[in-house]
Design brief:
Layout: H1 3-27, H2 35-51, H3 63-73, H4 95-99, E1 103-111, E2 118-128, E3 134-137, E4 149-153, E5 159-169, E6 174-180, E7 200-205, E8 213-223, E9 232-233, E10 243-245, E11 251-253, E12 259-262, E13 274-276, E14 282-292, H5 301-304, E15 308-315, H6 316-320
Antiparallel strand pairs: 1-2, 1-4, 2-3, 3-6, 4-5, 5-6, 7-8, 7-13, 8-12, 9-14, 10-11, 12-15, 13-14, 14-15
Length: about 325
């Protein structure tokens, strides 16, 4: 090999090495989620907030108080603080990393009668609406077992106490709560515009404790429904006549909420997870699933099992109904 050929190989190696290094580094940009470590961090962080609170009244939200606040705030709306402008989203491939810091884990801890340790209760999903700690999730998230303490964890492992519930809609399955941010300025998400049927959607949630899972689909339909509660996967209460409050405080009968169905996949633990458009704006929120079954008159209905699972989400209109003067 002559000198000119050797020189050419050296030049090529110098040019290719940085490209190879860049490619390798690009492959490691995706965050690696340690499910077990995050669950343990949530328990330890929330237990510390409960045990180190100056008084019982300053502890994070307890299930009994949560039920009382849900009743008190039914039909109420909150006023959003002045929010800093969030720049328009980058390409869709960067959506996950961009919105992940504002998607949270919402869960509870409790103590059993057999030991002194704190145990993990239910876990769900949620998202931050403002940098001063307004967080949105489902109404049914707070209607579980007694003597549970609720808290929120961000993707970086910070755990925050839930101080109060500010607005709620039982029929629409939506709640806005207030975190104790301890002075942190939190990342938050933009609200988008209602999507059309067939528009692409992205869901980020925590199905079955698989934290920060992304699924894709489309908007299937908008609807009102009277589905059989036995086939719906969610924690629920008894049905009641929906009511909202007028500005003078009087109650009025409200129309049944409109739901948005999507084809993006999710499961138990995804409740409260934000539904995004392709730009990273929130256009809905995970609520529940509904499974169809073949007619019992069908000769082989038992072997068919569930024929289709509908993914029902809280519509953007329901979320906006909890916010005063929402555009």
């Amino acid at each position: 090999m002559n000198t000119s050929h050797k020189l050419l190989l050296v030049i090529l190696a110098c040019l290719l090495f940085p490209m190879m290094e860049k490619t390798s580094s690009a492959r490691t940009q995706n965050p690696v989620v340690d499910d077990a470590a995050l669950a343990e961090q949530f328990i330890e962080g929330l237990a510390a907030l409960v045990e180190n609170a100056p008084s019982k009244t300053q502890r994070t939200l307890e299930s009994g108080n949560a039920l009382s606040l849900l009743a008190q705030t039914e039909g109420s709306a909150i006023r959003l603080p002045n929010r800093q402008h969030i720049p328009a989203g980058a390409t869709e491939e960067h959506l996950y990393q961009r919105v992940m810091p504002a998607v949270v884990v919402i869960g509870s801890i409790y103590k059993c009668d057999s030991c002194s340790k704190w145990h993990l209760g239910g876990m769900a999903s949620g998202w931050i609406l403002s940098d001063d700690g307004l967080v949105v999730t489902n109404h049914h998230v707070f209607t579980g077992d007694a003597n549970h303490y609720f808290g929120v964890m961000t993707s970086d492992g910070n755990v925050f106490a839930i101080r109060s519930i500010l607005a709620s809609d039982r029929d629409g399955d939506a709640v806005i709560a207030q975190l104790d941010t301890r002075g942190f300025v939190l990342p938050f998400l933009r609200l988008g515009r209602p999507a059309d049927c067939g528009d692409a959607v992205v869901v980020i949630s925590h199905p079955a404790g698989r934290f920060y899972s992304l699924t894709r689909g489309v908007v299937s339909r908008y609807h009102r429904h009277n589905a059989d509660p036995a086939t719906m996967t969610k924690s629920g209460g008894t049905s009641h006549t929906p009511r909202n409050r007028n500005s003078n405080g009087a109650s009025r009968v409200a129309p049944a909420p409109v739901w948005m169905s999507v084809t993006a996949d999710y499961a138990v633990g995804s409740s409260g997870g934000p539904v995004f458009d392709s730009s990273g704006n929130v256009i809905g929120m995970v609520s529940r699933t509904y499974s169809t079954q073949p007619s019992k008159n069908h000769r082989q209905h038992e072997s068919f099992g569930n024929q289709m699972v509908f993914k029902d989400c809280v519509s953007l209109d329901t979320v906006l109904g909890l916010i005063e003067n929402a555009d």
